Amino acid sequence: MSLPNQEEQVSMDTFLRGLWEENPVFVMLLGMCPVLAVSNSAINALAMGLATTFVLLCSSSLVSLLRKLIPKQVRIATYIVIIATFVTIVDYAIQAISLELYNALGAFIQLIVVNCVILGRAEAYASKQRLGATVINSLGMGAGFTIALLCLGTVREILGAGSLFGYSLFAENFQPWVVMILPPGGFFVLGGWLLAFNWYRQRRARKLLEQQGATAHGS
Amino acid sequence: MNGQGIATTSSVAMLRTLSLVAGISGLLVVLAYQLSMPLIAENKRIAIERALFKVIPGAVSRRNFRVTERGIVPAAEGVTDGPLIYAGYDDQGRLSGIALEAAAQGYQDVIRLLYSVDPACQCIRGIEVLKMAETPGIGDKIAKDPAFLENFSALDVRLNSAGSGLAHDIVMVKHGTKSEPWQIDAISGATISSRAVARMLNDSARQLLPQIFPHIDQLQDSNRGTP
Protein backbone atom coordinates (compact mmCIF):
# COMPACT_ATOMS: atom_id res chain seq x y z
CA MET A 1 0.00 0.00 0.00
CA SER A 2 1.65 3.20 -1.07
CA LEU A 3 0.59 6.29 0.80
CA PRO A 4 1.88 9.17 -1.28
CA ASN A 5 3.00 12.12 0.77
CA GLN A 6 3.32 14.31 -2.28
CA GLU A 7 0.27 15.32 -4.26
CA GLU A 8 -0.97 12.58 -6.53
CA GLN A 9 -1.66 13.01 -10.25
CA VAL A 10 -5.27 11.98 -10.86
CA SER A 11 -5.39 8.82 -12.95
CA MET A 12 -7.60 5.80 -13.46
CA ASP A 13 -5.62 4.15 -10.67
CA THR A 14 -6.80 6.81 -8.17
CA PHE A 15 -10.30 5.40 -8.56
CA LEU A 16 -9.56 1.72 -9.17
CA ARG A 17 -7.31 1.30 -6.14
CA GLY A 18 -10.37 1.39 -3.86
CA LEU A 19 -12.07 -1.35 -5.85
CA TRP A 20 -9.24 -3.85 -6.04
CA GLU A 21 -5.75 -3.17 -4.71
CA GLU A 22 -6.85 -1.37 -1.52
CA ASN A 23 -10.43 -2.64 -1.25
CA PRO A 24 -11.51 -1.48 2.23
CA VAL A 25 -13.27 -4.76 3.10
CA PHE A 26 -11.48 -7.55 1.26
CA VAL A 27 -7.93 -6.21 1.49
CA MET A 28 -7.73 -3.69 4.36
CA LEU A 29 -10.42 -5.41 6.50
CA LEU A 30 -11.72 -2.06 7.73
CA GLY A 31 -15.25 -1.24 8.83
CA MET A 32 -16.04 -4.84 9.72
CA CYS A 33 -18.81 -3.85 12.13
CA PRO A 34 -21.36 -2.68 9.53
CA VAL A 35 -20.05 -5.23 7.02
CA LEU A 36 -21.06 -8.12 9.26
CA ALA A 37 -24.09 -6.55 10.87
CA VAL A 38 -26.18 -5.11 8.04
CA SER A 39 -25.25 -7.39 5.16
CA ASN A 40 -28.14 -9.75 5.98
CA SER A 41 -30.07 -8.64 2.91
CA ALA A 42 -29.07 -7.09 -0.39
CA ILE A 43 -31.14 -3.95 0.08
CA ASN A 44 -29.69 -3.26 3.54
CA ALA A 45 -26.18 -3.80 2.18
CA LEU A 46 -26.80 -1.43 -0.72
CA ALA A 47 -28.28 1.28 1.49
CA MET A 48 -25.44 1.00 4.00
CA GLY A 49 -22.87 1.11 1.19
CA LEU A 50 -24.40 4.19 -0.38
CA ALA A 51 -24.77 5.97 2.98
CA THR A 52 -21.12 5.29 3.80
CA THR A 53 -20.04 6.43 0.34
CA PHE A 54 -21.92 9.70 0.77
CA VAL A 55 -20.35 10.38 4.17
CA LEU A 56 -16.91 9.38 2.88
CA LEU A 57 -17.18 11.62 -0.18
CA CYS A 58 -18.49 14.70 1.63
CA SER A 59 -16.22 14.49 4.67
CA SER A 60 -13.09 13.80 2.61
CA SER A 61 -13.89 16.71 0.31
CA LEU A 62 -14.33 19.10 3.21
CA VAL A 63 -11.16 17.85 4.89
CA SER A 64 -9.29 18.30 1.62
CA LEU A 65 -10.63 21.84 1.19
CA LEU A 66 -9.67 22.80 4.74
CA ARG A 67 -6.40 20.85 4.82
CA LYS A 68 -4.18 23.94 4.91
CA LEU A 69 -6.28 25.44 7.74
CA ILE A 70 -6.32 22.45 10.08
CA PRO A 71 -3.47 22.47 12.65
CA LYS A 72 -2.04 19.01 13.30
CA GLN A 73 -2.89 19.09 17.01
CA VAL A 74 -6.65 19.38 16.51
CA ARG A 75 -6.97 17.40 13.30
CA ILE A 76 -8.69 14.32 14.77
CA ALA A 77 -11.27 16.47 16.59
CA THR A 78 -11.90 18.38 13.38
CA TYR A 79 -12.29 15.22 11.29
CA ILE A 80 -14.72 13.70 13.79
CA VAL A 81 -16.89 16.82 13.84
CA ILE A 82 -16.97 16.89 10.02
CA ILE A 83 -17.78 13.17 9.75
CA ALA A 84 -20.46 13.36 12.46
CA THR A 85 -22.11 16.23 10.61
CA PHE A 86 -22.54 14.24 7.42
CA VAL A 87 -23.65 11.13 9.33
CA THR A 88 -26.41 13.20 10.96
CA ILE A 89 -27.49 14.43 7.53
CA VAL A 90 -27.58 10.85 6.17
CA ASP A 91 -29.54 9.78 9.25
CA TYR A 92 -32.25 12.37 8.55
CA ALA A 93 -32.20 11.64 4.82
CA ILE A 94 -32.81 7.91 5.29
CA GLN A 95 -35.66 8.60 7.72
CA ALA A 96 -37.17 10.88 5.10
CA ILE A 97 -36.76 8.28 2.34
CA SER A 98 -38.01 5.19 4.14
CA LEU A 99 -38.71 4.47 7.80
CA GLU A 100 -38.68 0.74 7.07
CA LEU A 101 -35.12 0.94 5.81
CA TYR A 102 -34.17 3.15 8.75
CA ASN A 103 -35.49 0.56 11.22
CA ALA A 104 -33.72 -2.25 9.38
CA LEU A 105 -30.35 -0.47 9.55
CA GLY A 106 -30.87 0.42 13.20
CA ALA A 107 -27.96 1.90 15.09
CA PHE A 108 -25.51 1.23 12.27
CA ILE A 109 -26.31 4.49 10.50
CA GLN A 110 -25.14 6.50 13.52
CA LEU A 111 -22.17 4.19 13.85
CA ILE A 112 -20.82 5.30 10.45
CA VAL A 113 -19.17 8.03 12.54
CA VAL A 114 -16.63 5.53 13.82
CA ASN A 115 -16.16 3.64 10.56
CA CYS A 116 -12.39 3.43 10.19
CA VAL A 117 -12.59 3.56 6.39
CA ILE A 118 -13.74 7.18 6.63
CA LEU A 119 -11.40 8.42 9.33
CA GLY A 120 -8.59 6.51 7.62
CA ARG A 121 -9.26 8.25 4.30
CA ALA A 122 -9.37 11.67 5.98
CA GLU A 123 -6.09 11.07 7.79
CA ALA A 124 -4.14 9.18 5.15
CA TYR A 125 -5.36 10.76 1.94
CA ALA A 126 -7.67 13.78 2.07
CA SER A 127 -5.45 15.73 4.48
CA LYS A 128 -2.62 15.66 1.93
CA GLN A 129 -4.31 15.72 -1.47
CA ARG A 130 -6.08 18.21 -3.68
CA LEU A 131 -9.89 18.21 -3.90
CA GLY A 132 -10.04 16.54 -7.33
CA ALA A 133 -7.90 13.57 -6.39
CA THR A 134 -9.74 13.22 -3.07
CA VAL A 135 -13.16 13.10 -4.72
CA ILE A 136 -12.06 10.43 -7.22
CA ASN A 137 -10.29 8.39 -4.56
CA SER A 138 -13.24 8.57 -2.14
CA LEU A 139 -15.66 7.52 -4.87
CA GLY A 140 -13.44 4.51 -5.58
CA MET A 141 -13.24 3.56 -1.91
CA GLY A 142 -16.98 4.02 -1.49
CA ALA A 143 -17.69 1.90 -4.54
CA GLY A 144 -15.32 -0.77 -3.26
CA PHE A 145 -17.07 -0.77 0.12
CA THR A 146 -20.53 -0.89 -1.46
CA ILE A 147 -19.62 -3.71 -3.82
CA ALA A 148 -18.09 -5.73 -0.98
CA LEU A 149 -21.23 -5.25 1.13
CA LEU A 150 -23.40 -6.25 -1.82
CA CYS A 151 -21.28 -9.39 -2.35
CA LEU A 152 -22.04 -10.44 1.21
CA GLY A 153 -25.64 -9.23 1.18
CA THR A 154 -26.68 -11.08 -1.96
CA VAL A 155 -25.14 -14.39 -0.89
CA ARG A 156 -26.62 -14.15 2.60
CA GLU A 157 -30.07 -13.18 1.36
CA ILE A 158 -30.17 -15.91 -1.31
CA LEU A 159 -29.06 -18.64 1.08
CA GLY A 160 -30.73 -17.39 4.24
CA ALA A 161 -34.06 -16.14 2.95
CA GLY A 162 -34.30 -17.61 -0.56
CA SER A 163 -34.83 -14.18 -2.10
CA LEU A 164 -32.95 -11.30 -3.69
CA PHE A 165 -33.90 -7.66 -3.08
CA GLY A 166 -37.09 -9.05 -1.51
CA TYR A 167 -38.15 -11.09 -4.56
CA SER A 168 -38.53 -14.80 -3.95
CA LEU A 169 -36.17 -16.87 -6.07
CA PHE A 170 -37.15 -20.42 -5.27
CA ALA A 171 -40.27 -22.53 -5.16
CA GLU A 172 -42.41 -22.78 -2.03
CA ASN A 173 -40.66 -25.88 -0.71
CA PHE A 174 -37.23 -24.17 -0.47
CA GLN A 175 -36.05 -24.43 3.11
CA PRO A 176 -33.98 -21.28 3.80
CA TRP A 177 -30.64 -21.66 5.50
CA VAL A 178 -31.57 -19.34 8.38
CA VAL A 179 -28.11 -19.28 9.97
CA MET A 180 -26.90 -17.24 6.99
CA ILE A 181 -28.92 -14.16 7.97
CA LEU A 182 -27.90 -14.53 11.62
CA PRO A 183 -24.54 -13.13 12.83
CA PRO A 184 -22.59 -16.41 12.37
CA GLY A 185 -23.62 -16.45 8.71
CA GLY A 186 -21.95 -13.07 8.29
CA PHE A 187 -18.63 -14.53 9.39
CA PHE A 188 -19.04 -17.63 7.20
CA VAL A 189 -19.82 -15.63 4.08
CA LEU A 190 -17.09 -13.04 4.76
CA GLY A 191 -14.60 -15.89 5.21
CA GLY A 192 -15.75 -17.45 1.96
CA TRP A 193 -15.34 -14.21 0.03
CA LEU A 194 -11.91 -13.50 1.56
CA LEU A 195 -10.80 -16.99 0.55
CA ALA A 196 -12.00 -16.53 -3.03
CA PHE A 197 -10.61 -12.98 -3.29
CA ASN A 198 -7.17 -13.84 -1.98
CA TRP A 199 -6.94 -17.07 -3.96
CA TYR A 200 -7.59 -15.09 -7.14
CA ARG A 201 -5.14 -12.34 -6.18
CA GLN A 202 -2.36 -14.83 -5.44
CA ARG A 203 -3.00 -16.72 -8.63
CA ARG A 204 -2.79 -13.51 -10.59
CA ALA A 205 0.43 -12.45 -8.83
CA ARG A 206 1.97 -15.87 -9.51
CA LYS A 207 1.02 -15.74 -13.17
CA LEU A 208 2.54 -12.29 -13.44
CA LEU A 209 5.74 -13.55 -11.83
CA GLU A 210 5.90 -16.56 -14.14
CA GLN A 211 5.42 -14.31 -17.14
CA GLN A 212 8.20 -12.03 -16.02
CA GLY A 213 10.39 -15.06 -15.34
CA ALA A 214 9.63 -16.42 -18.80
CA THR A 215 10.50 -13.17 -20.54
CA ALA A 216 13.67 -12.80 -18.48
CA HIS A 217 14.59 -16.35 -19.38
CA GLY A 218 13.86 -15.85 -23.03
CA SER A 219 15.99 -12.78 -23.47
CA MET B 1 2.73 20.69 8.70
CA ASN B 2 6.31 19.67 9.44
CA GLY B 3 8.18 19.63 12.74
CA GLN B 4 8.62 23.37 12.67
CA GLY B 5 4.91 23.96 12.12
CA ILE B 6 3.96 22.06 15.26
CA ALA B 7 6.14 24.24 17.44
CA THR B 8 4.72 27.46 16.11
CA THR B 9 1.00 26.63 15.75
CA SER B 10 -0.74 29.23 17.85
CA SER B 11 -3.77 28.61 20.02
CA VAL B 12 -5.60 31.16 17.90
CA ALA B 13 -5.17 29.02 14.80
CA MET B 14 -6.54 25.96 16.56
CA LEU B 15 -9.49 27.86 17.99
CA ARG B 16 -10.20 29.47 14.64
CA THR B 17 -10.25 26.16 12.78
CA LEU B 18 -12.39 24.37 15.34
CA SER B 19 -14.88 27.26 15.49
CA LEU B 20 -15.06 27.42 11.72
CA VAL B 21 -15.67 23.69 11.40
CA ALA B 22 -18.22 23.72 14.23
CA GLY B 23 -20.00 26.62 12.53
CA ILE B 24 -20.19 24.85 9.17
CA SER B 25 -21.31 21.69 10.93
CA GLY B 26 -24.06 23.43 12.87
CA LEU B 27 -25.37 25.12 9.75
CA LEU B 28 -25.50 21.89 7.76
CA VAL B 29 -27.16 19.86 10.52
CA VAL B 30 -29.86 22.47 11.15
CA LEU B 31 -30.48 22.77 7.40
CA ALA B 32 -30.83 18.98 7.03
CA TYR B 33 -33.17 18.85 10.02
CA GLN B 34 -35.40 21.62 8.72
CA LEU B 35 -35.62 20.11 5.24
CA SER B 36 -36.28 16.54 6.33
CA MET B 37 -38.65 17.11 9.28
CA PRO B 38 -41.92 17.44 7.29
CA LEU B 39 -41.02 14.37 5.22
CA ILE B 40 -40.19 12.30 8.31
CA ALA B 41 -43.42 13.33 10.06
CA GLU B 42 -45.38 12.37 6.95
CA ASN B 43 -43.58 9.00 6.76
CA LYS B 44 -44.42 8.28 10.39
CA ARG B 45 -48.08 9.15 9.82
CA ILE B 46 -48.24 6.88 6.76
CA ALA B 47 -46.57 4.04 8.65
CA ILE B 48 -49.09 4.27 11.52
CA GLU B 49 -52.05 4.48 9.13
CA ARG B 50 -50.87 1.57 7.03
CA ALA B 51 -50.54 -0.61 10.14
CA LEU B 52 -53.88 0.67 11.42
CA PHE B 53 -55.90 -0.04 8.29
CA LYS B 54 -54.30 -3.47 8.10
CA VAL B 55 -55.11 -4.34 11.69
CA ILE B 56 -58.70 -2.99 11.81
CA PRO B 57 -60.78 -4.90 9.24
CA GLY B 58 -62.74 -2.55 6.98
CA ALA B 59 -61.31 0.72 8.30
CA VAL B 60 -60.65 3.54 5.82
CA SER B 61 -60.29 6.55 8.12
CA ARG B 62 -59.15 7.09 11.66
CA ARG B 63 -59.22 9.44 14.63
CA ASN B 64 -56.89 9.51 17.62
CA PHE B 65 -58.10 9.53 21.21
CA ARG B 66 -56.49 9.43 24.60
CA VAL B 67 -57.70 7.39 27.57
CA THR B 68 -57.44 9.78 30.52
CA GLU B 69 -58.87 9.96 34.03
CA ARG B 70 -61.63 12.20 32.66
CA GLY B 71 -62.66 9.53 30.15
CA ILE B 72 -61.90 9.25 26.48
CA VAL B 73 -60.96 12.58 24.90
CA PRO B 74 -59.92 13.40 21.33
CA ALA B 75 -56.16 13.62 21.07
CA ALA B 76 -55.60 17.32 20.49
CA GLU B 77 -52.51 19.46 20.79
CA GLY B 78 -52.93 20.21 24.48
CA VAL B 79 -53.81 16.70 25.67
CA THR B 80 -50.71 14.68 26.37
CA ASP B 81 -51.65 12.45 29.29
CA GLY B 82 -52.97 8.91 29.01
CA PRO B 83 -52.29 6.24 26.41
CA LEU B 84 -53.11 6.93 22.77
CA ILE B 85 -55.78 4.81 21.06
CA TYR B 86 -56.91 4.88 17.44
CA ALA B 87 -60.50 4.52 16.30
CA GLY B 88 -60.99 3.21 12.75
CA TYR B 89 -64.12 3.92 10.72
CA ASP B 90 -65.50 2.25 7.59
CA ASP B 91 -66.50 4.12 4.43
CA GLN B 92 -69.88 5.05 5.95
CA GLY B 93 -68.33 6.55 9.05
CA ARG B 94 -69.31 3.71 11.37
CA LEU B 95 -66.85 2.60 14.03
CA SER B 96 -65.26 -0.62 12.78
CA GLY B 97 -62.77 -1.12 15.57
CA ILE B 98 -60.23 0.44 17.87
CA ALA B 99 -56.52 -0.13 17.80
CA LEU B 100 -54.20 0.00 20.80
CA GLU B 101 -50.47 -0.24 21.20
CA ALA B 102 -48.86 -2.84 23.42
CA ALA B 103 -45.26 -3.67 24.24
CA ALA B 104 -43.32 -6.25 26.24
CA GLN B 105 -39.84 -7.66 26.46
CA GLY B 106 -39.32 -10.38 23.84
CA TYR B 107 -36.40 -12.71 23.29
CA GLN B 108 -33.86 -10.05 22.26
CA ASP B 109 -35.50 -6.68 22.61
CA VAL B 110 -38.86 -5.07 23.33
CA ILE B 111 -41.62 -6.14 20.94
CA ARG B 112 -44.09 -3.37 20.07
CA LEU B 113 -47.31 -4.14 18.30
CA LEU B 114 -50.68 -2.71 17.40
CA TYR B 115 -53.80 -4.78 18.10
CA SER B 116 -57.38 -4.11 17.15
CA VAL B 117 -60.44 -4.67 19.32
CA ASP B 118 -63.91 -5.13 17.91
CA PRO B 119 -66.32 -3.58 20.44
CA ALA B 120 -69.27 -5.53 19.02
CA CYS B 121 -67.89 -8.96 19.90
CA GLN B 122 -65.49 -7.72 22.58
CA CYS B 123 -62.68 -9.60 20.95
CA ILE B 124 -59.25 -8.95 19.43
CA ARG B 125 -59.45 -8.97 15.64
CA GLY B 126 -55.80 -8.71 14.61
CA ILE B 127 -52.24 -7.80 15.53
CA GLU B 128 -49.55 -6.01 13.56
CA VAL B 129 -45.97 -6.03 14.81
CA LEU B 130 -44.48 -2.52 14.68
CA LYS B 131 -40.99 -3.20 16.00
CA MET B 132 -39.11 -6.28 17.06
CA ALA B 133 -35.67 -7.84 17.02
CA GLU B 134 -36.70 -11.49 17.35
CA THR B 135 -34.55 -14.24 15.84
CA PRO B 136 -35.18 -14.42 12.08
CA GLY B 137 -36.87 -17.67 11.13
CA ILE B 138 -37.88 -18.46 14.72
CA GLY B 139 -39.25 -15.68 16.93
CA ASP B 140 -40.10 -13.37 14.04
CA LYS B 141 -42.86 -15.80 13.04
CA ILE B 142 -45.12 -13.88 15.43
CA ALA B 143 -45.48 -11.30 12.65
CA LYS B 144 -46.21 -13.61 9.69
CA ASP B 145 -46.99 -17.21 10.69
CA PRO B 146 -50.61 -17.76 9.50
CA ALA B 147 -51.33 -20.40 12.16
CA PHE B 148 -50.24 -18.01 14.92
CA LEU B 149 -52.14 -15.04 13.49
CA GLU B 150 -55.25 -17.23 13.35
CA ASN B 151 -55.29 -16.87 17.17
CA PHE B 152 -56.31 -13.26 16.67
CA SER B 153 -59.28 -13.76 14.38
CA ALA B 154 -61.52 -13.58 17.50
CA LEU B 155 -59.51 -13.61 20.72
CA ASP B 156 -61.95 -13.21 23.61
CA VAL B 157 -61.49 -10.07 25.78
CA ARG B 158 -64.95 -9.80 27.41
CA LEU B 159 -65.00 -7.87 30.68
CA ASN B 160 -65.91 -9.52 33.97
CA SER B 161 -69.30 -8.85 35.53
CA ALA B 162 -67.98 -5.97 37.64
CA GLY B 163 -66.42 -4.36 34.57
CA SER B 164 -63.10 -3.96 36.34
CA GLY B 165 -61.02 -6.38 34.29
CA LEU B 166 -61.13 -9.21 31.83
CA ALA B 167 -63.46 -12.16 32.42
CA HIS B 168 -60.57 -14.44 31.45
CA ASP B 169 -56.90 -13.59 31.32
CA ILE B 170 -55.28 -13.97 27.90
CA VAL B 171 -52.85 -16.84 28.31
CA MET B 172 -50.44 -18.70 26.08
CA VAL B 173 -50.84 -22.46 25.86
CA LYS B 174 -48.53 -25.08 24.39
CA HIS B 175 -48.67 -25.49 20.63
CA GLY B 176 -51.75 -27.43 19.55
CA THR B 177 -53.59 -27.34 22.88
CA LYS B 178 -55.79 -24.25 22.46
CA SER B 179 -59.31 -25.03 23.62
CA GLU B 180 -60.78 -21.70 24.81
CA PRO B 181 -61.27 -18.45 22.85
CA TRP B 182 -59.03 -16.50 25.27
CA GLN B 183 -56.03 -18.79 24.80
CA ILE B 184 -53.15 -18.19 22.40
CA ASP B 185 -51.69 -21.22 20.70
CA ALA B 186 -47.88 -20.81 20.92
CA ILE B 187 -45.53 -21.16 17.98
CA SER B 188 -43.58 -24.36 18.46
CA GLY B 189 -39.93 -23.40 19.10
CA ALA B 190 -40.72 -19.74 19.76
CA THR B 191 -42.30 -19.96 23.20
CA ILE B 192 -40.65 -16.83 24.58
CA SER B 193 -41.82 -14.62 21.73
CA SER B 194 -45.33 -16.12 21.85
CA ARG B 195 -45.55 -15.63 25.60
CA ALA B 196 -44.42 -12.02 25.24
CA VAL B 197 -47.32 -11.38 22.84
CA ALA B 198 -49.81 -12.99 25.23
CA ARG B 199 -48.44 -11.06 28.18
CA MET B 200 -48.48 -7.66 26.50
CA LEU B 201 -52.01 -8.18 25.17
CA ASN B 202 -53.24 -9.28 28.57
CA ASP B 203 -51.61 -6.36 30.42
CA SER B 204 -52.81 -3.77 27.94
CA ALA B 205 -56.34 -5.15 27.54
CA ARG B 206 -56.88 -5.68 31.28
CA GLN B 207 -55.83 -2.12 32.02
CA LEU B 208 -57.42 -0.17 29.17
CA LEU B 209 -60.51 -2.01 27.97
CA PRO B 210 -62.49 -1.49 31.24
CA GLN B 211 -61.98 2.26 30.66
CA ILE B 212 -62.90 2.10 26.98
CA PHE B 213 -65.87 -0.27 26.61
CA PRO B 214 -68.31 1.71 28.84
CA HIS B 215 -67.63 4.86 26.76
CA ILE B 216 -67.57 3.24 23.35
CA ASP B 217 -70.50 5.39 22.15
CA GLN B 218 -68.34 8.46 22.61
CA LEU B 219 -66.04 7.24 19.85
CA GLN B 220 -68.96 6.83 17.45
CA ASP B 221 -70.59 10.16 18.27
CA SER B 222 -67.49 12.22 18.03
CA ASN B 223 -66.98 10.99 14.49
CA ARG B 224 -70.51 11.81 13.43
CA GLY B 225 -70.06 15.35 14.67
CA THR B 226 -67.35 16.11 12.16
CA PRO B 227 -67.89 16.16 8.39
Distance N to C terminus of chain A:
31 Å
Q: What is the count of DSSP helices of chain A, taking H or I runs of 4+ residues?
A: 8
Tell me the domain tally of chain A. Answer: 1
Counted beta strands of chain A: 2
Global geometry of chain B: globular
Helix content of chain A: 55-70%
Oligomer: heterodimer
What string, H for helix and E for strand, traces the elements of chain A in order?
HHHHHHHEEH
The domain count of chain B comes to 2
Helix content of chain B: 25-40%
Q: Which residue ranges of chain B are poorly predicted, with pLDDT under 50 across at least 5 consecutive positions?
A: 1-6
How big is the Rg of chain A?
Answer: 20 Å
Q: Please count the beta strands of chain B (DSSP E, at least 2 residues each).
A: 9
General description of the model:
The complex is a heterodimer of chains A (about 220) and B (about 230). With about 220 residues, chain A is an all-alpha fold. Chain A has one domain (about 10-165, about 175-215). Helices cover about 65% and strands about 0% of the residues of chain A. Chain A has 8 helices and 2 strands, in the order αααααααββα. In chain A, strands 1-2 form a two-stranded antiparallel ribbon. In chain A, a hairpin with a 2-residue loop joins strand 1 (about 165) and strand 2 (about 165-170). In chain A, helix 1 packs parallel to helix 7 (about 130-160). Chain A is flat and about 60 Å long. The relative contact order of chain A is 0.17. The model of chain A has no long low-confidence stretch (mean pLDDT about 90). Chain B is of the alpha+beta class. Chain B has 2 domains: about 5-45; about 55-225, no CATH class. Chain B is about 40% helix and about 25% strand. Chain B is built from 6 helices and 9 strands. Chain B has helices spanning about 5-10, 10-55, 140-145, 145-150, 190-210, 215-225, and strands at about 60-70, 70-75, 85-90, 95-105, 110-120, 125-130, 155, 170-175, 185. In chain B, the strands form 2 sheets. A 7-stranded antiparallel beta sheet of chain B has the order 2-1-3-4-5-6-7. A two-stranded parallel ribbon of chain B has the order 8-9. In chain B, strand 3 (about 85-90) and strand 4 (about 95-105) form a beta hairpin. At the A-B interface, helix 4 and helix 5 of A face helix 2 of B.
